[in-house]
Design goal:
Layout: H1 11-22, H2 25-37, H3 41-69, H4 73-79, H5 88-121, H6 129-140, H7 143-161, H8 165-191, H9 197-205, H10 214-228, H11 234-240, H12 248-276, H13 286-296, H14 302-336, H15 340-359, H16 370-374, H17 378-405, H18 408-416, H19 425-447, H20 454-460
Helix pairs in contact: 1-8, 1-12, 1-14, 2-10, 2-12, 3-9, 3-10, 3-11, 3-12, 3-17, 3-18, 3-19, 4-5, 5-7, 5-14, 5-15, 5-17, 6-13, 7-14, 7-15, 8-12, 8-14, 9-12, 10-19, 14-15, 15-17, 17-19
């Protein structure tokens, strides 16, 4: 493909796009309830450590792979694969991860769009907690309504990506990332006035050994993958749009710091509301759609507060969905030499079609025996498949490839360019070669049920 490759117009657009990708539903949806289920403060500390020793080294590796090859995942692995064509399969792993995530991600984001409309109309005002919770059940079991929102969200994402890197991705992520950060800050400032804020801050920052398990560290490792968008081919594509004049280490450091601050801010926004009304912080995935709406209606300015929150939710989903479609489309463009319009349209259409069973996952309309055969519904099956297997395996091979196979002169040059911290190259290489692969293997072993590391404590006890 002989097209001139597009690049970000500067550092700020890359930072906003990368931060927007990282600050997705992993931050707003998974992060708060995962903190709640794993004991608060000690889990947050574990998450920060995992970001530093696993997430950031792998994040840097993927950016270096994309920037140095000026290619998306498949071609990048092929470029440095030393004639071994099998490495491009790792690139396809990232494409598969993005494809599958987008297929069910847009269903969940669609529910958020539905809640915006419900909030504007004030439909759960003056309803009991049971009635508000029942509305989520009604929505998630209404396949046709879920399908409508799934289609609208996918269409919006495709419309943005189809315009290209500068006119589409850069332009809209610049707007949406700024808006979502402003909304999050406004909601945080509001929760400062709630009586549950002190308890929430204590819960988030105060270590609670009684609720902390060894498996909580594994959860922190997995969450670090989600919140940095690694193992999905996203940062390889975004890195390929970076200019040679930008410092990889500086850019990655800013993105990682932004993710840490935003994740903490999200938790400090959600948990004060939870503690103000004495709701269990371990409410799980239903925290967003079942618990929070019940609490919003009891606060002053409920329609505005609820609308702001779910607008934030959808914006975070969009800034993450854009690179998911971009990964699939860019690899199609490079491998099969098709136009952006054709590649994005195909990527959007296929993720929409594959996501239809997820839209009907809580009904028995499509694959009625799915739960009986696989133990959970279609949407959760795809989520588990990606979280437990595809992303960790993709991340494992990314670390091994950049650490051992890729030309080390190239990785050193990319790493040290534009930074005075050249001495960090050796520690980064050590972590990438040894620590990252080992910890990813531990994630896979724990998450797949091969071995429960909590048994170590039980055995010692």
């Amino acid at each position: 493909m002989n097209q001139v490759r597009e690049h970000w117009t500067g550092r700020v657009p890359f930072l906003l796009a990368a931060v927007g990708s990282a600050i997705g539903l992993g931050i707003l949806w998974k992060f708060p309830y995962t903190v709640g289920q794993n004991g608060g403060g000690l889990f947050l500390l574990s998450y920060l450590i995992c970001l530093i020793i696993v997430g950031i080294p792998l994040f840097i590796a993927e950016i270096i792979l994309g920037r140095s090859s000026q290619s998306a995942a498949v071609r990048a692995y092929q470029h440095y694969g030393k004639g071994r064509s099998g490495w491009k399969i790792v690139g396809w792993f990232g494409v598969l991860a993005s494809f599958l995530i987008m297929s069910f991600y847009s269903v969940i984001a669609g529910w958020g769009m539905s809640y915006i409309l419900m909030s504007i109309n004030g439909v759960y005002q003056n309803l009991s907690m049971e009635s508000v919770q029942a509305m989520y059940v009604t929505l998630s079991t209404s396949g046709d309504i879920s399908l409508l929102w799934h289609f609208l969200f996918t269409s919006i994402t495709v419309a943005i990506v189809i315009s290209g890197v500068r006119k589409g991705i850069e332009r809209w992520t610049r707007i949406m990332t700024k808006v979502l950060l402003v909304l999050l800050l406004l909601l945080f400032l509001y929760t400062l006035t709630l009586e549950g804020f002190t308890r929430a801050a204590r819960f988030i920052f105060y270590p609670n050994p009684e609720q902390f398990k060894l498996s909580s560290v594994i959860e922190a490792l997995g969450l670090a993958f989600w919140t940095l968008s690694i193992g999905q081919g996203i940062m390889i594509s975004y890195g390929s749009y970076m200019k040679r004049s930008d410092s990889v280490l500086q850019m990655c450091g800013i993105v990682a710091f932004s993710v840490i601050v935003t994740a903490t801010l999200a938790a400090l926004t959600i948990f004060p509301i939870v503690f103000t009304f004495n709701i269990s912080p371990q409410a799980g995935p239903g925290l967003i759609f079942q618990t929070l709406p019940c609490l919003f209606v009891q606060l002053p300015g409920a329609p505005i507060l609820s609308t702001m929150f779910f607008t934030l939710f959808v914006f975070t989903a969009l800034t993450s969905a854009i690179p998911l479609v971009e990964v699939v489309a860019t690899n199609l463009m490079e491998v099969y030499s098709c136009t952006r319009t054709k590649a994005v349209s195909l990527a959007g259409s296929m993720t929409f079609l594959f996501g239809i069973p997820s839209a009907f996952a809580n009904t028995r309309t499509i694959f009625p025996e799915w739960v009986q055969l696989y133990g959970t519904n279609f949407l959760n099956t795809m989520d588990s498949l990606v979280s437990i297997w595809i992303i960790p395996i993709g991340g494992l091979f990314s670390a091994l490839f950049v650490g051992w196979i890729m030309d080390q002169n190239v990785t050193r040059e990319e790493f040290v360019f534009g930074t005075t911290l050249k001495g960090l190259y050796r520690p980064w290489q050590f972590f990438l070669r040894w620590i990252v692969p080992l910890t990813i293997l531990i994630i896979i072993v724990q998450k797949s049920g091969i071995y429960d590391f909590d048994n170590l404590l039980t055995t010692k006890g």
